[in-house]
Amino acid sequence: MTWTIYLNVVIQGVLTGLVYGLMALGLSVIFGVVRVVNFAHGEFAVVAMYVAFLLFRSLGLDPLVTMLPIAALFFIVGFALQTTLINSFVGRPEHDQFILLVGIAIIVLNSLLMIFGPDAQPANLPYAFDSYAIGPVFIDKVRVYSAVAALAIASGLFAFFRYTATGTAIRACADNLTGAAVVGLDVKRLYAITFGIGLACVGAAGALMVTIADAAPSLGPAYTLLAFIIVIVGGLGSMAGALVGGLLIGVSEALSGFLIEPSMKSMFSFALLIAVLVLRPHGLLGRRA
Amino acid sequence: MIELWRGLGSRERGLLIGFLVALVAAPLAVDRYLLSVLTLILYFAYVGQAWNLMMGFAGQLSLGHALYVGLGAYVAALLWFYFGIGPWLGVFAAVAVAMAAGAIVGWLGFRFGVEGVYFALLTIAAAEFTRIAFDHLGFAGGSGGLFLPYEERRLGEWWNLRGGQVLFYYLALILAVGGVIVAARLARSRLGYHWLAVREDEPAARSLGIDAFRAKMTAVLVSSGMTAVGGVFYAFYNNNLFPGQVFDIGRSIELLLGPIVGGLGTVFGPVVGAFILTPLGESLIVLTQKLGIDAPGVKAIFYGLILVVIIYLRPSGVWPWLARILGVAERAR
């Protein structure tokens, strides 16, 4: 039965796509509020991968457990980075911010290279090859777990922005910066919190990524591009868009990898990106700025 | 050119002539290694200038200029490889193909109102798309690379760019000087002012009757064509091409760091930036080796740190600040 094969591939793509979506969510939140494009996004994701990998290898802690402490750690890193460095670049021209974040990306990437070397490191989870069988469809357990975790974190974030005072204040900054400053919001602190949240998403996503991919420094730039594609396809600044974009890219990668050639899978993602930019420049769920 | 020269003060003329004479005489004074570093500096000054025309002058951020370098390099190399067509003819085909690619990217972007960060990502996507395509193009060598034959008997054929370091040094010098002249001319042309107007305030420029779409398209076309010439140089200088190297986003970034660090939108910024960053990278190699810490990545970490420091301290680039110290006047446009 050929359709079951396709079903398998699509489901796998959807599950992976949710983790991609969580990573892209961080980029989207940062851009939507701080208006800075985080060119070091994928590099941070790989740092999280290595942290989760080391915790698993040395202490035997499951990435699904360490995900939360890693996210908390990344929140602190993001908060500190925004307060010390990036806040002074807010409002400066895009290319200045670009150079700053490219500089940070170079530093992070090469620190990883220096510490861990260029080779890919598989985590080898004990349940890596277990799967659920639902009729003719086989679903990897790890992918189910990480997809569920990604969804849980994303919904937590939705709730935070929707219902808490801080979340509302951050949305106010995104909607109207001058207005937010006039009513007395501490914009710089809210920016720092936002960047922290963005990096926390990356941290959690990176930890989950360890379960489905081998950690390697070279993944950094690739994930940065991946996050960009997802966010643009879904709509920069739209949170739901990031998840939808993640799903689309996950499925397109899985299908093109299966049907054509794995090494050409990102070509289809780029083609999808170009198509979206031409047909809907602000993304599928994006608003016109 | 004569008007340009007339526009300079005596101090500026003196500095310019001194600088040029030093560069022309350099092969007499320096060894092979230093000459290769100088060649690299001049190459980056040239491609940086080409990028600067599009971003610095017309305000269109391209993060995918490796696309034009790569296309230029591959077209000229393939013509030479399969048909024995030399680079002087090949360069026309290379420029034409790169400009066609630039036209597609520009049209996709500007026609549909893709701006700013979105446009930058479109340029990345175009370059990455091409990189993966070339990885799978059998006749271009695929991901295994394309190697230009290095034949002893052709070594003297300087007209086919089959020569040694000195030949390529002077070629790079001509390119860099030519790039500066083109930029200086364009800066004072009608087109240059259109670019400036579009960069500063596009709706206002439109309301004055400037065809913004056309201005931006010409910026992309001029920039991509100029960059492709640099690509031809790259192909014949290195004699090998790998899609993963020439089209890589790292190449695009490397190429635009010079103009930004030097001073975006200035005529001399890309030159100054190249003279800062390339020697910096090279001396870091030497330094880390001397200190015995040449683990992979150490050099790049320092490079990244210095980049952050420069952009933190000199937001508008080094050249406007340096020009003030030297007592010559070139403000950012």
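The mean pLDDT of chain A is 87.
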